[in-house]
Records
---
Amino acid sequence: MSLIASDTQRIVVGLGVTGLSCARFLAKNGMSFSVADNREIPPGLDQFRQEFPDVTLSLGPFQAGQFDAADELYISPGISLREPVIASAIQAGVKISGDLDLFVQSARAPLVAITGSNGKSTVTTLLGAMAEEAGLKVAIGGNLGTPMLDLLSDDSELYVLELSSFQLERCAGVNAEVATVLNVSEDHLDHHGSLLAYHQAKHRIFRGCRQALINRDDMLTHPLVPDSVRQWSFGLQAPGREAFGLRDEAGAVWLCFGDEKLIAADEIHLAGRHNLANALAALALGKAAGLEMASMLSALRKFKGLPHRCQHVADVDGVAYYNDSKGTNVGAAVASLRGLGDRFQVVLLAGGQAKGADLEPLVETLQEVGRAAVFFGESAPVLSEYLGEGLPSQCVSGMDEAVLAASRFAQSGDAVLLSPACASFDMFRNYEHRGECFVDAVGRLAQGRLQ
């Protein structure tokens, strides 16, 4: 590695996957930098030392004023801009950037940028599959899978990125060909401080975009953009001209573009009406990006969904079990409850770290479509108090106990849904681990080995 000597002091703040990708990008472009992390042993430490043995690395708690003399900070998404040492640097006039800024400066192919409180991973992955089906060389990642800087290539014909509010809040402009906020509900309030600040961070995705996609069912997704920005829309009601939506005809539900029927809902391998909204969003984004409709519909027919997102696990004694462990906020859990509530009475498994969110809307929806509830984790007492005597419920201490309790509440023809509405870190390594524990417990239940 050969870095060009410079008086410019660049610091990558936060290691991990994003920090490593920033380091690789800066090194590849010959730009000198150092790295700081407030953890003694951050993720990716060994890999960093192997790749960049000569780069200065500062570990351990940040010190007051540590970054005030820097020229530019590349801040990893997990570090809040309200962190005192970061706020001090901002006050001192230090330029704040992130991996998204570096990506925008370097990408040469069109970008479809996707954010939202829920569904963004499904829409990103599905749109990527549609572009591949259409024969494009597409790079898919961002907050999902491969870090965006590692995707940069002169061969790419299209980028499809999932972007988080954490990434967006420190980006000057995204300059996407097509940008969307799929939906907005309370999430990450412990990081952003308020729903307004969270909403504002999400809407930074529209900065510099040429086309925008809005959700007609969620006014919080509608951007303030110039008239020159073409706007598309999707929603779960009948669409108008040049819009995507659902139509009921002869007892069948169809995904439509205007008056044109595109595909019947029963041809799609995704559970719940919220996933019909995700499919409509992907079709709309692809249409805006110039993808052929036939290729998009072919990809949609093949798409089986993502693990831990309203994923059908098994049927046991006439009860369908669904793993929606990625439902880490109230809006996601409510969407899954309503989606399955069209077909089933639902026994809900929920709980964990609420991240400052109001859990009452979850309980209100549960009372509409639920048969019973099983609560676990830090938020279990709060959820139980909200539900009161409205439905049968039980608080448990582990996933095996939760699945066993749910199986006793459920009746043939019901669904058991793990959609926790909370983060997982009080009991599990991450949401994937939580979902895997659920799938394992359901498997043992089916074999008669869960006790």
Note: DSSP finds 16 helices and 20 strands in the chain.
---
Amino acid sequence: MIERLWSRVRGFLRSLTGQIFLLLTIGMSLAAMLALLIAEQSRSHDFQQWRMQRVVASAEDIGHRLQRDPKRVEAMLAAQQIMGAALAPEGIAVAEPDAELAKALRARFGPGSNPEASQVPAGFCFPRLRYDPSAGAAGVVNAPRPACWIVRFTDSTGARRSMALNLPRMERPPSMMTNPLYMLLIIIASAGLAIIVSRIVTQPLRRLEHAAESFSLSLDPEEIPENGPEEVRAALSTFNLMQRRARAGFAERTQLLAAISHDLQTPLTRLRLRLELVENEELRARLLQDHQAMQTLVKEGLDLAASTETQEEWSVIDIDSMLESMVEDAQDLGAPLRFAGGCGGTIRAKPNALSRCISNLVSNAIKYGGEAEIGCFRQGCRLVIHIRDKGPGIPSEQLDQMFEPFTRGASGQPGGRPGTGIGLTIARSLALTFDASVRLMNAEGGGLVALIEMKA
């Protein structure tokens, strides 16, 4: 179960759809995480700027108050009667001055203010015994101490002022980058979008793949509708043009073969009449035998031409009835053919082309195997007709070569006896006209099996 699932996943990732899916998922996930990180950094920077502005505003407010009533404000600062501000404790040095904050204070107080500012631990500004927010506010328990800044500057009177400013400490929420659930949500969303995009992108390629497969199984497939983006339409148009040119080439070759074979009939007939006049009986018999071989070759050439240009209409066929009828007809003529069993149901095919294809394979099996049996079975969504003979078989490396025109096996093997060598070529050409395929295989226990595979 696990191996099968892993095999399917590996097969998917090797496909173009899988590779686009993987690339988009990783890319979009990383892009989302990077955007989230940048947003958090920007939010942190904005928070720092806001906090600095509040410190500057507090310092400016206290500075203006000191200018108006310095004694009273100093007393209030000493008694910590101004919320958020107090006199700076003695002996606290600005060890790490905040240059950016000092620049903002200089802009408010003037270039001669010589400001200094730095954030210090809250304990320096508010001793534990003198600052307890839970005692003066409802709902505040174990609240963190405010953030504290020491600010020093020279006011317009030349007096050096030193104060401690505080703001409520605001804890930032935890980063989403550390939340695995949020990261998982990003990956799932990216994967969902990636699978949709990858299927949309590869859909034209799948159409092209199916069209190429149909063209490999049939000489006259339907053209692909040319729709979609401009590049896709151009590719589909080029493929349709290739199909038309290939069909035109097949038709031209077939017409040429048919014309040659037909034109040879007349001189062959005259040649036979003249051969009958040869007085030497032995010589006449050999010449007539050669003449008969030539006539057979011409006839099968015409059959080959006709097999690739059939214009027969499609029909629904009861395959079992058809096979049983062909077996009965062959047995009536004394042919050693046996029906091995049916598969039930109907198929859509071209009746005459299918009948000629089967007859060709049956004749070949009886000729080279002595006897044959025929039957059919279903394999998934395919229907397979099998014709088996009792001959010695063919070496595995030569099976595909047997479908080449004028190819015969070695002497003593099926196909190695006298013949033209285009019987299997005709059978395969006929099968292509109804979107089927023909192949050979050696049977277990001896003999050769010819298989016609088509859509059920």
Note: The first strand starts at residue 85 and ends at 87.
